[in-house]
Design a protein that fits this description.
Layout: E1 7-11, H1 16-27, E2 31-36, H2 40-51, E3 57-61, H3 67-80, E4 86-88, H4 104-131, E5 136-143, H5 154-174, E6 179-186, H6 192-200, H7 202-211, H8 220-231, E7 241-245
Parallel strand pairs: 1-2, 1-4, 2-3, 4-5, 5-6, 6-7
Length: about 260
């Protein structure tokens, strides 16, 4: 797929999934604008690796839960690199705590990043596209937890459920502007918090893997391939949809 003249805006761009998405889109010709909460020197080696592909690459330290920071980020990228046409709100946090024990601060922080941050980023980017009369694609990184209760991560479940409806509302609002808005709902990833936990506890890894009907974890590169599908400029009709990528977990198999 050719993504020349496309500019991808990726939050959480230094995480496992964010890096995989950035590499995939860059390899297809897109310029890349990465946002994350790490200092610039932490991002420098990864930025250099993308620049080696001949792409324009910009890293910005940004907190997606701060709407002004997000607006400033997108305005700066639009002026310096170009208006982002592929918007991937990927930044997310998850902490283990049940509904009885979770603190108000923890609840608010998870929803601020996982839901409000996606709203701030996608709306600001969509409005910039409308202003410049450009087409675009927004791809939310969701979860099967949006419609399946996980008692140990209630704020994450609620945030991802809200993200699914945000996807539909954004799709309805911006369809007339040729901005297609979709979600990829992921199952269990061999990355991030789940990857770290499983790496340290092999027996837990085996137990979790046995719950997955296809008996395989999702790798970050596989997520990136599906993001690429939804970024296709020839995708002119799919909007407001959820691409479920969970290995069959949500089918309610007897081992879950």
């Amino acid at each position: 797929m050719e993504l020349k003249n496309q500019i991808a805006l990726i939050s959480g761009g230094l995480g496992d999934i964010g890096r995989a998405i950035a590499r995939e889109l860059a390899s297809c010709g897109a310029d890349i604008a990465i946002g994350d909460i790490e200092e610039e020197h932490e991002a420098a080696p990864f930025v250099a690796s993308l620049q080696d592909l001949g792409r324009g690459v910009v890293y910005t330290k940004v907190d997606v839960s701060d709407p002004k920071s997000v607006e400033d980020w997108i305005s700066t990228i639009s002026n310096d690199l170009g208006v982002p046409t592929l918007i991937i709100p990927n930044a997310a946090i998850v902490r283990i705590s049940n509904i009885r024990q979770i603190s108000v601060d923890d609840w608010n922080q998870q929803l601020s990043v996982n839901l409000s941050g996606c709203f701030y980023m996608s709306r600001a980017a969509a409005n910039k596209l409308v202003e410049r009369k450009k087409k675009g694609r927004i791809i939310y990184i969701g979860s099967w937890a949006a419609n399946r209760v996980h008692k140990d991560i209630p704020a994450y479940c609620v945030g991802k459920a809200g993200l699914r409806m945000l996807c539909k509302c954004m799709a309805a609002e911006y369809a007339e502007n040729n901005i297609m808005v979709n979600e990829i709902a992921l199952g269990i990833i061999n990355a991030g918090l789940s990857g770290e936990i499983m790496k340290d506890q092999p027996q837990l890894q085996e137990s979790i893997q046995a719950r997955i009907p296809v008996n395989e974890f999702i790798e970050p590169g596989e997520v990136a391939k599906q993001v690429l599908v939804l970024c296709d400029p020839n995708n002119r009709h799919m909007t407001g949809s959820t691409l479920l990528m969970d290995g069959g977990l949500s089918l309610g198999n007897s081992n879950s």
